[in-house]
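Subject: design request, 190 residues
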């Protein structure tokens, strides 16, 4: 029988918090809001569903599809790279007409930004070190925080202002490109 261990829950929560980086994703959330409605509930539920799926079936799903974690990570890196380039260059790669109002909460927000390749590989590796009940608790804590940030995006936008939003968007665009390059470099083998 597994027991809740608050030390493990805290460790898992902090690891996931740093991988998901919802605070760093605020410029992306604000950018997506300009194109379409962001549904905090939908994005949080889909991201949570994906995280639970990764935890319980991540390895099996990838093996079933004939994929490995590295290939999945590289695909996520390409999407993250393109989003970062959009933010830096202030050019649209993903055209607004292609993003339906209901789907932007799922792609690219729930996946790959919140529950992407980094989250998947992290959850798969956390299983080896932490009890499942504590990983689940860590996921739930992160989902609550994600929901709060998404729900507060209007308030965050007002606080930042246009100039603050532009600066933050470009800074985090560069960070996204760097994360994408690192993901690609780490998982690419000849």
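Subject: RE: design request

Done. Sequence follows.
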């Amino acid at each position: 029988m597994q027991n809740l261990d608050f030390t493990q829950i805290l460790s898992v929560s902090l690891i996931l918090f740093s991988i998901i980086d919802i605070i760093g994703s605020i410029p992306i959330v604000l950018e997506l809001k300009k194109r379409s409605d962001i549904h905090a509930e939908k994005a949080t539920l889909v991201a949570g569903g994906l995280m639970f799926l990764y935890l319980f079936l991540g390895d099996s799903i990838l093996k079933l599809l004939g994929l490995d974690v590295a290939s999945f990570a590289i695909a996520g890196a390409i999407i993250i790279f393109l989003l970062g380039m959009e933010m830096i260059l202030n050019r649209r790669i993903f055209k607004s007409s292609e993003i339906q109002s209901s789907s932007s909460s799922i792609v690219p927000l729930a996946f790959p930004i919140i529950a992407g390749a980094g989250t998947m590989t992290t959850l798969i590796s956390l299983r080896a070190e932490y009890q499942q009940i504590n990983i689940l608790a860590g996921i739930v804590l992160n989902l609550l925080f994600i929901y709060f940030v998404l729900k507060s995006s209007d308030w965050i936008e007002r606080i930042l202002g246009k100039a603050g939003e532009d600066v933050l968007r470009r800074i985090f665009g560069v960070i996204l490109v760097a994360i994408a390059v690192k993901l690609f470099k780490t998982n690419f083998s000849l």
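Residues 11 and 138 are 8 Å apart (CA to CA).
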